[in-house]
Amino acid sequence: MYISRQIQPLINRLLAQFPAILVTGARQVGKSTLLKHTVSDYHYITFDDPLILNQAKDEPHLFFLNHQGQLILDEVQYAPELFSLLKLEIDKQQKNGLFLLSGSQAFELMHNVSETLAGRIAILKLQGLSLREIQGIEFNQPFVPNNDYLNARAKAVKPIENIWQIIHKGYMPRLYQQQTDWEIYYSSYVATYIERDVRQLTNIANSNDFTRFMVALAARSGELLNYSNVAQEVGVSNETIRRWVTILQTSGIIYLLQPYHNNHLKRAIKTPKVYFLDTGLMAYLTKWLTPETIANGAKSGQFFETFVVSEIIKSFYNNGIEPPIYFYRDTNQKEIDLIIEQGKSLYPIEIKTTANPVKKMAKAFDILKNLPDELKVEQGTIINQYPNKIYLAEDLIAIPVGFI
């Protein structure tokens, strides 16, 4: 059962504008399936096949003689030898829509792309299923909570039967396409990711160290990233933790949310927050094994916030946009969960698990009043579990999580 992906119309548009398109993303988020459904008449080649991979690496010219026409090249990071020939082929044919590439190791992949295909390729990021995709909703605007967005979104809202079930299950398409043992799936996912991707990017003497590192980061999702604390817990150096964080980030496993800074906000801290981009993987690593334990446990707010942030990120990625999102925290412990920046407009957002939102939850928004006049602070938003949109003040609105 194919689940329609919201990034697909964008790929179709870009095929008419670029000779090549690269779709990156974590393992098993559905890159190959998406590309095959987008262009059914392209010849599909996967470099997971060792015979094809060997020819691509050892005799790339012969590879292109054997595979002509419009191509989908899956897991292309395994065959870096092809990139210079892709450039030659693109320059020779002078046509758009020649190649669709996918890859899950963005670290090496982006180096090759930037060196050889700059200006010839559009680069998109695919995450796991969004809530909109799970619910079969076609609405596909990036989340910017102004009145135009909220009015349009209200026409395409579906009730969420059990938000905690979705948070626990995660966003991997396979878990929604067929009955699959959740714990075995994520156990295999972690093992495959470490063996196939991580070991190719860095020397890890003990895979258990990297697993402990992933667990330590999952337990901190939604928190400030303190490299020293993680290093102490895992038992490796700060430098190693920084390198491993970069690997998870470029693999599409985590997102580092940067702090909002402005010269008028003197006390703002400069440390990023870390978010896992799949709450199912986060739940598996931290051993929250049922939706009920997450909903009723001490980490429910952390899981809910991680879910909301990941959904907002997906709404931008599915439109080919790098998310313009930040957070604010200062040395006085005043915090704003999210700030979305659109031009000169700022949208402050609080994320609360409550179904009883109140005005005082947005008290920290007052910090933004100290910003210069050229920046416009728009109405504030509280994302929560109350089922309806409700104004709490003229400049403050509470919206259900289903409005993302």
Account of the 3D structure:
With 404 residues, this protein is of the alpha/beta class. The chain is built from 17 helices and 15 strands. It has helices at residues 8-15, 31-38, 50-58, 60-66, 83-93, 106-116, 131-135, 147-154, 163-169, 173-177, 182-201, 207-219, 227-234, 238-250, 279-285, 291-296, 300-317, and strands at residues 20-24, 43-46, 71-74, 99-103, 121-125, 223-224, 254-257, 273-276, 325-329, 335-342, 345-351, 376-377, 380-384, 390-393, 396-400. Strands 9, 10, 11, 12, 13, 14 and 15 form a 7-stranded mixed beta sheet that branches. A hairpin with a 2-residue loop joins β14 and β15 (396-400). α9 (163-169) crosses α15 (279-285), α12 crosses α13 (227-234) and α13 packs across α14 (238-250). The longest helix has 20 residues, at 182-201.
What's the short story on this structure?
It is built from 17 helices and 15 strands. With 404 residues, the chain is of the alpha/beta class.
Number of helices: 17
Structural class: alpha/beta
Give the mean pLDDT. Answer: 93
**Coarse morphology:** globular
Q: Ends: how far apart? A: 25 Å
Number of strands: 15
Helix share bin: 40-55%
Using the CA coordinates, give the radius of gyration: 22 Å
Largest sheet geometry: 7 strands, mixed
Low-confidence stretches: none
| Strand content range | 15-25%
Task: Quickly list its features.
404 residues, alpha/beta, seven-stranded mixed sheet, five-stranded parallel sheet, globular
List the topology elements:
Blueprint: H1 8-15, E1 20-24, H2 31-38, E2 43-46, H3 50-58, H4 60-66, E3 71-74, H5 83-93, E4 99-103, H6 106-116, E5 121-125, H7 131-135, H8 147-154, H9 163-169, H10 173-177, H11 182-201, H12 207-219, E6 223-224, H13 227-234, H14 238-250, E7 254-257, E8 273-276, H15 279-285, H16 291-296, H17 300-317, E9 325-329, E10 335-342, E11 345-351, E12 376-377, E13 380-384, E14 390-393, E15 396-400
Parallel strand pairs: 1-4, 1-5, 2-3, 3-4, 11-12, 11-13, 13-15
Antiparallel strand pairs: 6-8, 7-8, 9-10, 10-11, 14-15
Helix pairs in contact: 3-4, 9-15, 12-13, 12-15, 13-14
